[in-house]
Amino acid sequence: MLQFKLVLLGDSSVGKSSIVNRFVKDSFDEFRESTIGAAFLSQTVTINDNDSDVAQEITVKFEIWDTAGQERYKSLAPMYYRNANAALVVYDITQADSLEKARSWVQELKNKVDDDSLVIYLVGNKIDLVSNNNDDQDKRAVERSVAETYAEENNLLFSEVSAKTGEGIKQVFQSIAENLYQIRKKQDTTNINSTQRGNAPVDIHLQRPSTNDSTSCCS
Ligand SMILES: Nc1nc2c(ncn2[C@@H]2O[C@H](COP(=O)(O)OP(=O)(O)OP(=O)(O)O)[C@@H](O)[C@H]2O)c(=O)[nH]1
Description:
Rossmann fold; 6-stranded mixed β-sheet; 5 helices; 33% helix; binds guanosine-5'-triphosphate
């Protein structure tokens, strides 16, 4: 079993706790209390490795830190994103400001987390509030294409979800697990190769200066 630390970041009320609750308990609460400090939960997913000679199933355990989005808890966040393998940065597609906040979290992660392998997933939540036929009921304030382009430019994974209906939630965690597994596999291969290189006989070519080499110093 592989174990990874995942942190959720984003403005207050965007639905971070609701996303975790949907993923861990498959439930939704219309009247959730705002998180104080942070909450810890864990959940596993199963992924398939079909690249190996023998197809295998791998269990990935997520240790999840759901941080509080209220401004007064902002200074606590580094404690939770430190050593994280993945960050879920959440915004609410009905609140334009919440995308700006998400961008500032992404920037902070890129500046402060000294680990190129950190997987950052940008999530637009509450798609259940958007109607498909573009009428007055449509509460969308952030166009999908705007967030998607930003994600592409910044090398983030991206999708829109609904914690309320559950749409897209499982896929987010599944995709993070698959990405982290591929990264871990690559790191392991690199480590094995460099260990092997360390034990291999060192190939030293001692080149004698040729006598008619004009650059040689000594006669
Ligand atoms: N319609 C709809 N409402 C949602 C969805 N997700 C969350 N909500 C509601 O949005 C409100 C805030 O949800 P939370 O999960 O507490 O938000 P949070 O980001 O954890 O907030 P903080 O703890 O303050 O950081 C609650 O009333 C939820 O019921 C969703 O997908 N659709």
